[in-house]
Automatic annotation (TrEMBL):
Needed cofactors: Zn(2+)
Keywords: Metal-binding, Oxidoreductase, Zinc
MF annotations from Gene Ontology: ferrous iron binding; oxidoreductase activity, acting on single donors with incorporation of molecular oxygen, incorporation of two atoms of oxygen; zinc ion binding
Record domain Extradiol ring-cleavage dioxygenase class III enzyme subunit B: where: 9-246
Organism listed in the record: Vanrija humicola (Yeast)
Lineage: superkingdom: Eukaryota
Database matches in Pfam families: LigB (PF02900)
Protein name per its UniProtKB record: Extradiol ring-cleavage dioxygenase class III enzyme subunit B domain-containing protein
Similarity section: Belongs to the DODA-type extradiol aromatic ring-opening dioxygenase family.
Length: 272
């Protein structure tokens, strides 16, 4: 039987405290995402996080995690001890890894390999979404080393080929991300309008062009002092196909310097 075409997702992952805030709207949105994944049962998930940029500063070079045990990377600082004791159980898969390499190679996207694990941009929302563990294979791949939205788009298009093999593609970052303003409690008049721009770009008929154009938006530098939390949205938009996908809003909520946006692109139903 042919594989069911995989879907594409973007999750805002916020900060580590959200994984303990079970009554919060973002926590509940992660749970809805988990139910969507459980219903879709993808063959595996290929995940791109804001917190892993390839350290080779050249265009289109991607790092692929080859540690199938998916150890957790506690890449956050200054939190209580229990934050570093949290667990999330998952594994990679040899076929998934081979298929990722094949898709990148076929698209002419250079890659390296690295034994790494899942950073908090992945495992924090996944811990909530999957209630601490999942048997769906998960592989994390890095953002391009040059931090370019054009490279991110090319990368997303390369990953799109995996959808036909039944894999889901997911980006994780933050729709609005300015930690300095958050910590210093500065006014954030840019937060809501930039989030509106992101939401419109994701839902447009040309999401790749429109998400790339967010990097030219007059509020971009205020909403994102650095690009890494916005780049996974471009990857996801490029892996989606507005001609054959429906875009669904999982959760969108302005919250000042850390605006939330979560969406999925699912194959349109074929009329009988």
């Amino acid at each position: 039987m042919a594989a069911t075409r995989g879907s594409v997702y973007f999750l805002s992952h916020g900060g580590p405290p959200t994984m303990f805030q079970s009554t919060s709207a973002p926590y509940q949105a992660w749970q809805r995402y988990g139910k969507e994944i459980a219903a879709a049962r993808p063959r595996g998930l290929v995940v791109v996080s804001a917190h892993w940029e390839n350290d080779q500063p050249t265009a289109d070079v991607i790092a692929v995690n080859t540690d199938a045990t998916n150890p957790l990377v506690y890449d956050f600082y200054g939190f209580p001890k229990e934050f570093y004791e949290q667990t999330f159980e998952s594994r990679g898969d040899a076929q998934l890894l081979a298929d990722i390499k094949g898709a990148l190679g076929a698209a002419g996207v250079a890659y390296s390999t690295e034994k790494r694990g899942l950073d908090h941009g992945v495992w924090v929302p996944f811990k909530v979404a999957f209630d601490g563990r999942t048997d769906i294979p998960i592989a994390q791949v890095s953002l391009p080393g040059d931090s370019s939205p054009l490279s991110a788009a090319r990368f997303g298009r390369a990953l799109a080929a995996l959808r036909d093999q039944g894999y889901g593609i997911m980006g994780t970052g933050q729709a609005v991300h300015n930690l300095r303003d958050l910590m210093q409690r500065r006014p954030t008049p840019y937060g809501a309008p930039f989030l509106e721009a992101v939401d419109a770009a994701v839902k447009s008929k040309t999401p790749v062009d429109d998400t790339i154009n967010l990097f030219r938006h007059p509020l971009y530098r205020q909403a994102h002092p650095s690009p890494e939390h916005l780049l996974p949205i471009v990857v996801a938009a490029a892996a989606a196909d507005p001609a054959t996908d429906d875009v669904n809003e999982i959760f969108v909520q302005p919250e000042g310097a850390l605006g939330w946006g979560m969406w999925s692109w699912t194959p349109k139903a074929v009329a009988a």
